[in-house]
Amino acid sequence: MPARPAAGAEYITAYGKTAPLQAVPAVGGKLGLSIQHTPGTINVVSHDLMMQRGYAQAEAAADSAPGVSSGGSPGSPAQLMMRGFTGNQILVLHDGQYFGPTTMINRPQNSFNLESVQVLKGPSSVLYGQGAVGGTVDMRTRNPTFDAPHANALMSYGSFNTWNAGIGGSVPITQTLALRTDFSRTSSDGFVKGADPHSDDFTTTLLWKPTSKFTARLSMDYLTDRLSTYYGTPLVDLSQTGGRVGGLLSSSKGLGITRASLWRYYNVRDGKAGSVNATPTLHLDWRVNSHVLFHNSSYFIYSKRRWNNAESLTYLNSPGSTGAAGNAIAPGRIGRDRFYVYQNQHQVGDTLHAQFDFSIFGMKNRFVLGGDAYYLRFIRNRGFPSADYADSVSLASPESTQLGSFAGEYPFMKSPTTMVQAGLFLEDVLTIRDNLRLVGGFRYDWLSLDRQNYTQAGQFNAATSFKGHYNPDNFRIGPVFDITKNISVHGVYTTGEDPPGSNLFLVNRGQFTRLSHSRQGEIGVKASLWDGRFTTTLALYDIRRTRMLVATGPDTVATAGVQKSRGVEWQGDLTLNRHWSLSGNVAYTYSRYGSFHPSASVDASGNQVPDVPAVTANLWAIWSRVGDLPLDLGAGMRYVSARKGDYANTLSLKDYALVNVFAGWHAYKNITVYGRIDNIGNKHFIQWADTSYPSEVMLGAPRSFSISAQADF
């Protein structure tokens, strides 16, 4: 459910603003606490804000939160960075449900179908079991309403032949039954031509409310997609090629990117990166009386995913390399692999909890007790040629070749994995005084993992297969003190325990013996000032994570070690008057490894964590009703400081600042036409350096424009 107003609070949605502190986002837990009274940092990006800023997918909305950035790699399509942690160390939920480890399981979500994107910072094992250490992102779908019929539509066209379209609406069928359906489609040729991503997302929800005390909500989300198949631009030896593009990176090994390779597509012509996902869910709420509430959520997940690409790109600077067919590869060409993986996932789960309101020695108390369980069956089939390189292409003019078939690829290697988890949890908020609350929680889990591997001959591989049983227990506790009615300070200590950081379905025998452990301390302040015109939050945190694993290649992991992160995050939203509003945030992150050995040849102890900028900042300004005309003008700026691109810290990615502008014309009542220019300065920058593909980097999108029409009735 979307962020909702706290009981008795006035909830006003201001144009161009994020959620007020009195909103109650579901991602914060089951106690029904407002943002102000949750001992932790929560950011909510509403549907209206996503549409206004032109965020076509949820990852872009998450990027607008303090200290968050995304990866964009098709191998890990939902990869986010938060509080110094990346990949599966960020938990992604859909309406509060866990779908599995983030990077290969989750898919980019079209923002049109979403009510909000909610971000909770720090470990969340107490709340969700599989509690990733950096934070949790919950993508909440739109719900039906009973007040009247509503309809929404979106049509957008922009650079690179990019189309976005959506249509949806809510209809009260009877006084007790309402229906909402949304359909959206995105498609593009891609800013690297040939990548051509697209997705279709259909969401429908039936809401039944026979009495004021009982609600049943049945939903179905059906998503099909093809991810961008741009896997990166190869790093080359500049001493041999010359033609360096400045302002992108520096390397102690003399590596760089040449002008001849910018915006080149090095994948095969018929690359594949698609999926089909169906997720029915049923939510039941029963208010027994003013003191007791029961909630139950049941869900089923079916997903089929297919990758088949040339993913690893290696610049060959010396003779002696050969392709899978035995042909010599000339120096100066790009050697390519082939890698395919087919995934089939079935998951069924249920969560039941009860909420009790009562008094303890005259103090108000709310207590939540519940349990959840799920069964996950994940079958992974994969293969790659039995050669270092399948083939090669030209650096300056990569040939448009097909996938082909190579010795060693087929038959595939099969790895069925079964994961069963059950957990008991409790949460509690004790109102010691009207201005002082103590919030706590505890969770105990039973996790069973059965990983089976089979050879290409179909024989069971006992040497790499394993079974494991794990019993993590975690807690959080922290006070919230109201200095005034609208200013609160909080502190919280949280622990987390979960699979150790690499993709769980890559791990083999001997690589995964104990769960990763993390702990976080956080203090912060939240305030609403100037009659609600200025809302601000400030948080300082310190995180330590131990017993980590790390992915070292497309199908390998290694024991690593310890990671530490500390930083500060600030968010502010200011409405000067009915014409002017400003919103911004800035985050500083200090993230380093402790004892950390990602491979036998690399000691990264003390090094900076790859893809983690020390500073990220966002700023938006909106001038509404310019000259009392039905015209809005807006501008946004995003800054990302320099980052490291590899574990050894030999590769440094340059900082960048992007400026976006838009104009909105309210052509008719409830219809707005937007024109946008993103990256107006056409800044060339590197968005991500995937450590699983160390010989290439992901370029960010160049300047682009779009024009869109939005209608709400």
From TrEMBL:
<dbReference type="Pfam" id="PF00593">
    <property type="entry name" value="TonB_dep_Rec_b-barrel"/>
</dbReference>
<dbReference type="Pfam" id="PF07715">
    <property type="entry name" value="Plug"/>
</dbReference>
<keyword id="KW-1134">Transmembrane beta strand</keyword>
<feature type="domain" description="TonB-dependent receptor plug">
    <location>
        <begin position="35"/>
        <end position="136"/>
    </location>
</feature>
<keyword id="KW-0798">TonB box</keyword>
<dbReference type="InterPro" id="IPR000531">
    <property type="entry name" value="Beta-barrel_TonB"/>
</dbReference>
<dbReference type="InterPro" id="IPR012910">
    <property type="entry name" value="Plug_dom"/>
</dbReference>
<feature type="short sequence motif" description="TonB C-terminal box">
    <location>
        <begin position="696"/>
        <end position="713"/>
    </location>
</feature>
<keyword id="KW-0732">Signal</keyword>
<feature type="domain" description="TonB-dependent receptor-like beta-barrel">
    <location>
        <begin position="223"/>
        <end position="680"/>
    </location>
</feature>
<keyword id="KW-0812">Transmembrane</keyword>
<keyword id="KW-0675">Receptor</keyword>
<keyword id="KW-0813">Transport</keyword>
<dbReference type="InterPro" id="IPR039426">
    <property type="entry name" value="TonB-dep_rcpt-like"/>
</dbReference>
<dbReference type="InterPro" id="IPR036942">
    <property type="entry name" value="Beta-barrel_TonB_sf"/>
</dbReference>
<dbReference type="InterPro" id="IPR010917">
    <property type="entry name" value="TonB_rcpt_CS"/>
</dbReference>
<keyword id="KW-0472">Membrane</keyword>
<comment type="similarity">
    <text>Belongs to the TonB-dependent receptor family.</text>
</comment>
<keyword id="KW-0998">Cell outer membrane</keyword>
<dbReference type="InterPro" id="IPR037066">
    <property type="entry name" value="Plug_dom_sf"/>
</dbReference>
<protein>
    <submittedName>
        <fullName>TonB-dependent receptor</fullName>
    </submittedName>
</protein>
